[in-house]
């Protein structure tokens, strides 16, 4: 028994030691944390991705050739050159991700206003668990390679833990990364060449601390912040993020989440406003038209935003992404008061057709929204509101020449309801014009839709009448349809003038650039057809995003959208990548030439959609408000063919 006691004591101490390294992010980070992104268990997260529809699709044999070409190009362009520049192999480090992964930004004495040189601190924490010996070896090798390459490396102890300290500057950026930011470098070079002294100042230097505490890899640029983390790991009394009331308000969102993030919005917004240089006239420059940041922030209601929190959840029935804006009802104003909407029915009405691939319904009071917008504009610039009112008064006077009883405030804004619906169908063809302009309908709810449509006709006639493009009128099934010609999009090849049509029916004013979808809507009152609300699985999925206080609901048929997108991609890479779906990706990559895009994304290597259709289904989303803030939820149910 006496021999057993020391063994048990050693085991208990070891357990306490190990336990300290696996504290959750909120118990490791200081209470002045501004931003945190954390994956509590990277092994679990990788397993979730592997079993998700996206992970299964990426590992499907039918996309292997496409995947191999993309990965090979990515490695040759970025990974291999970066490994060569840094003198490391990423495979030696990716295997170390065994536990927590946390990236954080802490305030560290910075408030955005004082000129004492304080800056936010960056921190990266990676728990390697049973790979701690490999981590130690990797760090030793990394330090040797850096020293051999001529980098200035020193050693510093923080709470008896040895850290390597590298002094880095913008000139230490690896050549492979400089290639990606050549335009930024050229701008910096031209400005630095103006004066040698300024060039030295612009080449800011930063100390980076990297070390190992038990199984935890710690990388940061502030020894003070690292010291607090080590103190937490050792069990010392330190105020942590978990004790922050604003973080604790979102604690339920992070519990059991394989991925989450949090932002101290109040501290960030405060740091970017209220500069000491701001003059009484309203700006740092003294120009009364150069608005004070505080004025804009207050008008938009941003000073009422305390936190932003998000998480990702995955279960057998699907994946869910949640965002929470901490804007208490008692301090809610500006855009947040508008975004809160009204808790009313949001499911698709019976007239929304089954073949709609996108749908959204937002219960927002039009009259209150207009009043809110006017208040925001006035709070930012009374002159801007005066200009707006002058334009409306001019339109009102012009309208009275045709109808003495017309009142723009009463007939137009006074007829705005509390229901806004949009839905979209698949493109009619595969040309660039078809992909960018699928048939869609905008429905504006109104207590008197006929009067609202007439008001729109009159006001558009006033603003466009001088150019001869005033509304044209025709009858369709007893409804008056008004059409307004619109100019061609400037700079777009082969662009042609378009037409916006609108008509009143069923308590809505329907507006569209596609006549056929408008006429289909006007016929919907005469015949019954299959409705989107009866789509298989939609009712059950909507329960994940709709609840008390919901004012917005949306739906996207990912399967049909992907089918059309894939067919367009395989048929015409140039047109497909210029479409609204892929254009941002292509623009960001800097690859405007389809032949260059093919070096990365080769459509000929993609399978036909029927071979991968089982990985796609639909997505729903909803927004709601309660006394604590605004919430946005997205849910993607597991496709039926993948359900176990």
UniProtKB/TrEMBL annotation:
> Which intervals carry biased composition (Basic and acidic residues)?
192-205
Note down the stretches annotated as region Disordered: 174-205
Q: What is this protein called in UniProt?
A: DUF3352 domain-containing protein
What lineage does UniProt assign to this protein's organism? Bacteria, Pseudomonadati, Verrucomicrobiota, Pedosphaerae, Pedosphaerales
Q: Where is the signal peptide?
A: 1-20
- Keywords on record: Signal
**Where in the sequence does UniProt note compositional bias of the Low complexity kind?**
180-191
């Amino acid at each position: 028994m006496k021999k057993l006691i020391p063994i048990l004591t050693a085991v208990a101490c070891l357990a306490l030691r190990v336990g300290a390294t696996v504290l959750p992010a909120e118990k490791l980070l200081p209470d002045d944390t501004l931003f945190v992104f954390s994956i509590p268990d990277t092994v679990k997260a990788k397993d979730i991705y592997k079993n998700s529809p996206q992970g299964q699709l990426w590992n499907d044999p039918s996309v292997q050739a496409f995947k191999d070409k993309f990965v090979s190009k990515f490695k040759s362009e970025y990974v291999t050159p970066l490994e060569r520049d840094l003198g490391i192999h990423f495979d030696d480090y990716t295997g170390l991700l065994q536990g927590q992964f946390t990236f954080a930004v802490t305030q560290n004495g910075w408030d955005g206003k004082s000129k004492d040189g304080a800056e936010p601190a960056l921190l990266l924490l990676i728990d390697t668990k049973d790979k701690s010996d490999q981590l130690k070896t990797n760090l030793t090798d990394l330090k040797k390679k850096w020293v051999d390459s001529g980098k200035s490396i020193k050693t510093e102890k923080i709470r008896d833990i040895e850290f390597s300290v590298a002094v880095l500057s913008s000139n230490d950026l690896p050549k492979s990364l400089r290639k990606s930011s050549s335009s930024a470098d050229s701008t910096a070079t031209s400005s630095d060449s103006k004066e040698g002294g300024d060039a030295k100042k612009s080449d800011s230097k930063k100390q980076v601390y990297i070390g190992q505490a038990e199984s935890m890899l710690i990388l940061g640029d502030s020894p003070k912040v690292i010291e607090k983390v080590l103190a937490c790991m050792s069990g010392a009394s330190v105020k942590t993020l978990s004790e922050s009331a604003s973080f604790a308000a979102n604690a339920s969102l992070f519990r059991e989440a394989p991925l989450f993030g949090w932002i101290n919005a109040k501290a960030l917004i405060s740091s970017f406003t209220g500069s000491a240089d701001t003059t009484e006239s309203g700006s740092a420059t003294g120009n009364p038209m150069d608005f004070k940041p505080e004025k804009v922030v207050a008008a938009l209601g941003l000073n009422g935003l305390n936190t932003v929190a998000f998480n990702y959840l995955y279960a057998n029935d699907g994946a869910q992404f949640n965002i929470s804006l901490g804007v208490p009802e008692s301090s809610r104003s500006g855009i947040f008061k508008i975004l809160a909407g009204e808790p009313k029915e949001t499911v698709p009405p019976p007239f929304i057709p089954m073949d709609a691939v996108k749908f959204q319904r937002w219960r927002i009071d039009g009259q209150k929204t207009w009043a809110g917008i006017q208040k925001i504009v006035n709070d930012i610039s009374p002159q801007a509101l005066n200009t707006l009112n002058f334009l409306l008064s001019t339109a009102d006077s012009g309208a009275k020449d045709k109808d003495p009883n017309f009142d723009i405030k009463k007939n137009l804004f006074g007829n705005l309801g509390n229901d806004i619906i949009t839905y979209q169908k698949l493109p009619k063809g595969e040309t660039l014009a078809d992909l960018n302009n699928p048939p869609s309908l905008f429905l504006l709810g109104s207590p008197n839709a006929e009067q609202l449509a007439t008001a729109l006709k009159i006001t558009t006639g006033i603003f466009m009448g001088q150019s001869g493009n005033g509304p044209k009128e025709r009858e369709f099934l007893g409804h008056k349809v008004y059409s307004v010609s619109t100019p061609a999009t400037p700079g777009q090849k082969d662009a042609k003038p378009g037409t916006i049509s609108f008509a009143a029916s069923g308590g809505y004013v329907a507006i569209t650039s596609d006549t056929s979808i408008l006429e289909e809507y006007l016929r919907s009152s005469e015949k019954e057809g299959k409705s989107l609300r009866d789509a298989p699985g939609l009712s059950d999925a909507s329960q994940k995003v709709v609840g008390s206080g919901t004012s917005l609901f949306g739906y996207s048929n990912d399967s049909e959208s992907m089918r059309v997108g894939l067919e367009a991609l395989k048929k015409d890479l140039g047109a497909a990548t210029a479409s609204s779906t892929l254009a941002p990706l292509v623009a960001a990559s800097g690859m405007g030439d389809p032949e260059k895009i093919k070096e990365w994304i080769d459509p000929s290597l993609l399978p036909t959609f029927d071979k991968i259709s089982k990985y796609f289904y639909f997505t729903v989303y909803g927004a709601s408000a309660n006394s604590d803030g605004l919430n946005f939820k997205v849910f993607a149910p597991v496709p039926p063919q993948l359900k176990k």
